[in-house]
Amino acid sequence: MKNNLVISLVGVNSYHVDDCQKLYYYLKRQGYTVKVLTSKPGLFEAGDAYEYSNRIFTYLDKILYCLDLVRDYDTDVLHLDADLPAELRKQTDYKSAAKYYSRELIDSFLERSKEYQVTYTGSWPGGDFDKYKHNACFRYLKEYCEYKGIEYKDWKTIWEYVLFFRKDIDYDTVRYELETIAPIFTYMSLMNNETYCKQPFVLGGAEGLALSIVLDKLGIESKEVLI
Predict the structure, then answer these.
(1) Given CA atoms 120, 122, 60, 149 in this order, what sign does their dihedral have?
(2) CATH 3.90.550 is the classification of domain 2-224
Protein backbone atom coordinates (compact mmCIF):
# COMPACT_ATOMS: atom_id res chain seq x y z
CA MET A 1 0.00 0.00 0.00
CA LYS A 2 1.82 3.10 -1.25
CA ASN A 3 2.56 5.58 1.55
CA ASN A 4 0.26 3.56 3.86
CA LEU A 5 -2.60 5.31 2.13
CA VAL A 6 -5.91 4.66 0.39
CA ILE A 7 -7.14 7.13 -2.22
CA SER A 8 -10.92 7.54 -2.42
CA LEU A 9 -12.73 8.30 -5.67
CA VAL A 10 -16.46 8.63 -6.37
CA GLY A 11 -18.19 8.04 -9.69
CA VAL A 12 -21.96 7.61 -9.51
CA ASN A 13 -24.51 7.27 -12.33
CA SER A 14 -23.56 9.58 -15.19
CA TYR A 15 -21.92 11.97 -12.74
CA HIS A 16 -18.23 12.08 -13.67
CA VAL A 17 -17.91 8.31 -14.14
CA ASP A 18 -15.71 8.72 -17.22
CA ASP A 19 -13.42 11.14 -15.41
CA CYS A 20 -13.38 8.83 -12.39
CA GLN A 21 -12.34 5.85 -14.51
CA LYS A 22 -9.48 7.79 -16.13
CA LEU A 23 -8.21 9.06 -12.78
CA TYR A 24 -8.52 5.61 -11.21
CA TYR A 25 -6.30 3.89 -13.77
CA TYR A 26 -3.82 6.77 -13.74
CA LEU A 27 -3.43 6.53 -9.95
CA LYS A 28 -3.14 2.74 -10.10
CA ARG A 29 -0.28 3.10 -12.57
CA GLN A 30 1.40 5.43 -10.08
CA GLY A 31 1.28 2.64 -7.49
CA TYR A 32 -1.44 3.99 -5.20
CA THR A 33 -4.13 1.91 -3.55
CA VAL A 34 -7.42 3.27 -4.91
CA LYS A 35 -10.99 2.49 -3.87
CA VAL A 36 -14.03 3.73 -5.77
CA LEU A 37 -17.61 4.33 -4.69
CA THR A 38 -19.54 3.83 -7.90
CA SER A 39 -22.81 2.78 -9.49
CA LYS A 40 -20.80 1.08 -12.27
CA PRO A 41 -18.38 -1.30 -10.52
CA GLY A 42 -17.72 -3.23 -13.73
CA LEU A 43 -15.59 -0.34 -14.99
CA PHE A 44 -13.01 -0.90 -12.26
CA GLU A 45 -10.83 -3.76 -11.07
CA ALA A 46 -12.42 -6.36 -8.82
CA GLY A 47 -11.92 -5.54 -5.15
CA ASP A 48 -11.50 -1.83 -5.74
CA ALA A 49 -15.13 -0.91 -6.41
CA TYR A 50 -17.83 -0.40 -3.77
CA GLU A 51 -21.24 -0.42 -5.38
CA TYR A 52 -23.48 2.58 -4.78
CA SER A 53 -27.02 1.30 -5.22
CA ASN A 54 -29.09 4.36 -4.25
CA ARG A 55 -30.93 6.00 -7.15
CA ILE A 56 -30.43 9.44 -5.61
CA PHE A 57 -26.81 10.38 -4.93
CA THR A 58 -26.17 12.45 -1.81
CA TYR A 59 -22.97 14.48 -1.80
CA LEU A 60 -22.29 13.80 1.88
CA ASP A 61 -21.92 10.11 1.06
CA LYS A 62 -18.44 10.72 -0.33
CA ILE A 63 -17.28 11.97 3.07
CA LEU A 64 -18.96 9.07 4.86
CA TYR A 65 -17.25 6.73 2.39
CA CYS A 66 -13.85 8.18 3.32
CA LEU A 67 -14.52 7.56 7.01
CA ASP A 68 -15.52 3.97 6.24
CA LEU A 69 -12.23 3.47 4.37
CA VAL A 70 -10.29 4.73 7.40
CA ARG A 71 -12.13 2.13 9.47
CA ASP A 72 -11.83 -0.74 7.00
CA TYR A 73 -8.16 -0.27 6.10
CA ASP A 74 -6.83 1.34 9.30
CA THR A 75 -4.90 3.86 7.25
CA ASP A 76 -4.86 7.47 6.09
CA VAL A 77 -7.41 8.28 3.38
CA LEU A 78 -7.12 10.92 0.67
CA HIS A 79 -10.22 11.86 -1.29
CA LEU A 80 -9.80 13.33 -4.77
CA ASP A 81 -12.71 14.57 -6.86
CA ALA A 82 -12.51 13.05 -10.31
CA ASP A 83 -13.35 16.35 -11.97
CA LEU A 84 -11.52 19.60 -11.32
CA PRO A 85 -13.73 22.40 -9.98
CA ALA A 86 -14.38 25.30 -12.34
CA GLU A 87 -12.38 27.63 -10.09
CA LEU A 88 -9.33 25.38 -10.35
CA ARG A 89 -9.66 24.87 -14.09
CA LYS A 90 -9.33 28.64 -14.43
CA GLN A 91 -6.05 28.58 -12.51
CA THR A 92 -4.26 25.75 -14.29
CA ASP A 93 -3.45 24.62 -17.80
CA TYR A 94 -4.74 21.15 -16.91
CA LYS A 95 -8.42 20.50 -17.60
CA SER A 96 -8.58 16.89 -16.38
CA ALA A 97 -7.84 15.53 -12.94
CA ALA A 98 -5.79 12.65 -14.33
CA LYS A 99 -3.30 15.17 -15.70
CA TYR A 100 -3.44 17.57 -12.77
CA TYR A 101 -2.89 15.16 -9.86
CA SER A 102 0.77 14.33 -10.39
CA ARG A 103 2.56 12.02 -7.99
CA GLU A 104 4.72 14.93 -6.83
CA LEU A 105 1.63 17.05 -6.14
CA ILE A 106 -0.10 14.31 -4.15
CA ASP A 107 2.98 13.35 -2.13
CA SER A 108 3.72 16.97 -1.28
CA PHE A 109 0.14 17.48 -0.09
CA LEU A 110 0.34 14.35 2.07
CA GLU A 111 3.63 15.40 3.62
CA ARG A 112 2.19 18.77 4.62
CA SER A 113 -1.03 17.18 5.89
CA LYS A 114 0.38 14.58 8.27
CA GLU A 115 0.35 16.85 11.34
CA TYR A 116 -3.44 17.26 11.17
CA GLN A 117 -6.35 14.84 11.44
CA VAL A 118 -8.21 16.57 8.59
CA THR A 119 -6.89 18.76 5.80
CA TYR A 120 -8.52 20.24 2.74
CA THR A 121 -7.63 22.39 -0.24
CA GLY A 122 -9.29 25.77 -0.43
CA SER A 123 -12.41 27.44 0.93
CA TRP A 124 -15.46 29.05 -0.63
CA PRO A 125 -14.62 32.19 -2.62
CA GLY A 126 -16.20 34.57 -0.11
CA GLY A 127 -14.29 33.20 2.86
CA ASP A 128 -15.70 31.60 6.01
CA PHE A 129 -19.34 31.23 6.94
CA ASP A 130 -20.02 34.77 8.18
CA LYS A 131 -19.90 35.86 4.54
CA TYR A 132 -22.69 33.41 3.67
CA LYS A 133 -24.87 33.02 6.75
CA HIS A 134 -27.51 35.47 5.54
CA ASN A 135 -28.09 33.60 2.27
CA ALA A 136 -31.68 32.39 2.10
CA CYS A 137 -30.71 28.73 1.79
CA PHE A 138 -29.12 28.72 5.25
CA ARG A 139 -32.23 29.78 7.13
CA TYR A 140 -33.01 26.10 7.82
CA LEU A 141 -29.54 25.55 9.24
CA LYS A 142 -30.02 28.57 11.49
CA GLU A 143 -33.38 27.26 12.69
CA TYR A 144 -31.79 23.88 13.43
CA CYS A 145 -28.94 25.46 15.38
CA GLU A 146 -31.34 27.61 17.39
CA TYR A 147 -33.56 24.63 18.17
CA LYS A 148 -30.59 22.48 19.24
CA GLY A 149 -28.80 25.26 21.10
CA ILE A 150 -25.81 25.14 18.75
CA GLU A 151 -23.79 28.35 18.52
CA TYR A 152 -24.03 29.84 15.04
CA LYS A 153 -20.36 30.38 14.19
CA ASP A 154 -18.07 31.65 11.47
CA TRP A 155 -17.29 28.06 10.49
CA LYS A 156 -14.64 27.20 7.95
CA THR A 157 -16.21 26.75 4.53
CA ILE A 158 -14.30 23.67 3.47
CA TRP A 159 -13.91 23.15 -0.25
CA GLU A 160 -14.09 19.37 -0.37
CA TYR A 161 -12.63 18.38 -3.73
CA VAL A 162 -9.42 17.30 -1.94
CA LEU A 163 -9.78 15.94 1.60
CA PHE A 164 -7.31 14.12 3.84
CA PHE A 165 -8.34 12.03 6.88
CA ARG A 166 -5.57 10.77 9.16
CA LYS A 167 -6.00 7.23 10.42
CA ASP A 168 -6.32 8.24 14.09
CA ILE A 169 -9.45 10.34 13.56
CA ASP A 170 -12.47 9.26 15.61
CA TYR A 171 -14.28 8.12 12.46
CA ASP A 172 -17.25 6.55 14.25
CA THR A 173 -18.12 9.73 16.14
CA VAL A 174 -17.53 11.99 13.13
CA ARG A 175 -19.72 9.72 11.01
CA TYR A 176 -22.48 9.71 13.63
CA GLU A 177 -22.51 13.51 13.84
CA LEU A 178 -22.49 13.86 10.04
CA GLU A 179 -25.43 11.49 9.69
CA THR A 180 -27.26 13.48 12.36
CA ILE A 181 -26.90 16.81 10.55
CA ALA A 182 -27.20 15.41 7.01
CA PRO A 183 -31.02 15.78 6.77
CA ILE A 184 -30.70 19.54 7.27
CA PHE A 185 -28.44 19.85 4.25
CA THR A 186 -30.65 17.57 2.20
CA TYR A 187 -33.67 19.70 3.12
CA MET A 188 -31.81 22.88 2.17
CA SER A 189 -31.13 21.44 -1.27
CA LEU A 190 -34.77 20.45 -1.75
CA MET A 191 -36.08 23.83 -0.65
CA ASN A 192 -33.77 26.12 -2.62
CA ASN A 193 -33.61 25.46 -6.34
CA GLU A 194 -31.78 28.70 -7.05
CA THR A 195 -28.77 27.91 -4.87
CA TYR A 196 -28.78 24.12 -5.08
CA CYS A 197 -29.80 23.52 -8.66
CA LYS A 198 -28.45 20.01 -9.14
CA GLN A 199 -29.12 17.26 -11.60
CA PRO A 200 -32.25 15.29 -10.71
CA PHE A 201 -30.40 12.36 -9.14
CA VAL A 202 -28.28 14.50 -6.77
CA LEU A 203 -29.17 15.87 -3.34
CA GLY A 204 -27.27 18.08 -0.97
CA GLY A 205 -24.48 20.56 -1.24
CA ALA A 206 -22.15 22.39 1.15
CA GLU A 207 -21.00 19.06 2.54
CA GLY A 208 -17.72 20.71 3.45
CA LEU A 209 -19.63 23.08 5.71
CA ALA A 210 -21.39 20.12 7.34
CA LEU A 211 -18.00 18.53 8.00
CA SER A 212 -16.69 21.81 9.40
CA ILE A 213 -19.62 22.10 11.82
CA VAL A 214 -19.06 18.55 13.05
CA LEU A 215 -15.30 18.98 13.46
CA ASP A 216 -15.86 22.20 15.41
CA LYS A 217 -18.36 20.47 17.69
CA LEU A 218 -15.94 17.62 18.38
CA GLY A 219 -12.89 19.84 18.81
CA ILE A 220 -11.04 18.26 15.88
CA GLU A 221 -8.64 20.61 14.16
CA SER A 222 -8.76 20.93 10.39
CA LYS A 223 -6.25 22.79 8.26
CA GLU A 224 -6.27 24.26 4.79
CA VAL A 225 -3.32 22.89 2.84
CA LEU A 226 -2.96 23.95 -0.76
CA ILE A 227 -2.31 21.13 -3.16
Answers:
(1) positive
(2) yes
